[in-house]
Design a protein that fits this description.
InterPro entries: ArsR-like_HTH, HTH_ArsR_DNA-bd_dom, HTH_Metal-responsive_Reg, WH-like_DNA-bd_sf, WH_DNA-bd_sf. This is ArsR family transcriptional regulator. One of its GO terms (molecular function) is cadmium ion sensor activity. By secondary structure, the chain is mostly helical. It folds into 2 domains: about 80 residues, Winged helix-like DNA-binding domain superfamily/Winged helix DNA-binding domain (Arc Repressor Mutant, subunit A), CATH 1.10.10; about 35 residues. The protein is built from 5 helices and 2 strands. It has a two-stranded antiparallel ribbon with strand order 1-2. Helix 2 crosses helix 5 and helix 3 crosses helix 4. It starts with 6 loop residues before the first helix and ends in a 22-residue tail after the last helix. The model has no long low-confidence stretch (mean pLDDT about 85).
Length: about 110
């Protein structure tokens, strides 16, 4: 049974998905068009096993869905609005200092 997530749950799931560069690349690829896992693995230059783990994460987060197509499975964004959100996020201007990096979080969960 599907349920609607709260605003906080949606943002938390989206944040978890975006926390990994491969998942970001997957979401951006699926924003352009639905795709089969083999094609996605080739596009991203990663193994199918590694891709499968990331797709499972994105499915668990509720951001992508698996659509059976004959004997194959195609992946697509769960909601077209996710594509619009990704467009907005990708073109956002961030206010960051040149000497600061937010790649790794410290023990408090804050950027160093």
């Amino acid at each position: 049974m599907l349920t609607a997530a709260t605003d906080i749950e949606v943002l938390t799931r989206f944040g978890r998905a975006l926390a990994d560069p491969i998942r970001c690349r997957l979401l951006l690829a699926l924003r352009r068009s639905p795709a089969h896992p083999a094609d996605l693995a080739d596009l991203l230059g990663i193994s199918r096993t590694r891709l499968s783990n990331h797709l499972a994460c994105l499915r668990d987060c509720g951001l992508v869905v698996a659509v059976p197509v004959g004997r194959r499975t195609r992946y697509e964004l769960a909601d077209a609005r996710l594509g619009h959100a990704l467009d907005g996020l990708a073109t956002t201007v961030l206010a960051v200092a040149a000497d600061r990096s937010c790649v790794e979080a410290d023990e408090k969960g804050c950027c160093p």
